[in-house]
Amino acid sequence: MNWIIASLLSAFFLGCYNLGVKHAVRDNAVLPLLFLVNLVSALIWLVLMMLPSSGTLLPLLRVEPLGPFQHFQVLLKSALMTGSWMLIYFGLKRLPMSLASPVQSTGPVWILVGAVLVFGEHLSPVQWLGVGITLGSFLALSFVGAKEGIHFFRNKAIWFIVLGTLLQGTTGLYDKYLFACAGFTAATVQAWFSIYMVVLFLPLVAGWWLRWWPRGDFHWRWSIPLIVAFLLLADFIYYDALKSPGALISVVASLRRGDVLVAFAGGVWLFQEKNCLRKLPVILCLVAGIVVTMLG
User: Fold this and answer.
1) Residue 56 has what pLDDT?
2) Alpha carbon 208 to chain centroid distance?
3) What is the mean pLDDT of residues 47-75?
4) What is the DSSP track for 113-159?
5) DSSP 8-class letter at 211
6) Which residues of 47-205 form beta strands (DSSP E)?
7) Alpha-carbon torsion (273, 275, 281, 287), positive or negative
8) Is the confidence at residue 217, as pLDDT, over 90?
9) Structurally, how many domains does the chain consist of?
10) What is the pTM of this model?
11) Mean pLDDT of the chain
């Protein structure tokens, strides 16, 4: 599959995944939800790993054997994503989709700004223009959010999304290393990543079950299996795009940010969210700023 088409498909399924998450976390406990999502994903991959390696299994779904250091590399990715998912899920639980998804989409820009501040990297004039558009749009979005009683710079849920997105962006760079430099296949990373996520979430969900802290109740939602399906599709297609010859991570990351448009449309349609006409031009400017930054 062409890596540009793969990136767009990944964006569509990622937007659907975010909508599924929003439906599942509303008035629901987050930790058991995260554990279940990863458990189902891991079980699917365990079944695929037990199938004969020839004949039955498609080459794209074949999981390669790993050495101890390679297992550690995937475990590190899983640890980064555990922190990212917890922050993002808790943020999504408390925010409307039409605000949370645009904030989440700004990840690549924060990574670039961090590279300038921490590592002294230099951006081109076009990239600075993109950063300016993105930050201006982010500020404009904060004004729209204030009309709903959500003050960006004082709201914990906004900071959960921002911090989770930064971790997610770091993981995206690490993914490129795993595929381009370390020689991992998409199926191998996705399979072991899913398994290690279960291991990492197990003590957390045990603490929730034993009431080590005040917690809410968990309710089953039909959107939970859809979360698993959309995530598997979005990640597998994304990994396949990164492995394609000539694939540019900046372009893949930019195209993948199209998920914000899917999530915005779904938030309006499924959740009847407010102030959508005010948010739409801001979100379009935000996406444009991200694309200019990543392609500059």
Assistant:
1) 53
2) 24
3) 80
4) HHHHHHH-----HHHHHHHHHHHHHHHHHHHHHHTTT--TTT-HHHH
5) T
6) none
7) negative
8) no
9) 1
10) 0.79
11) 83
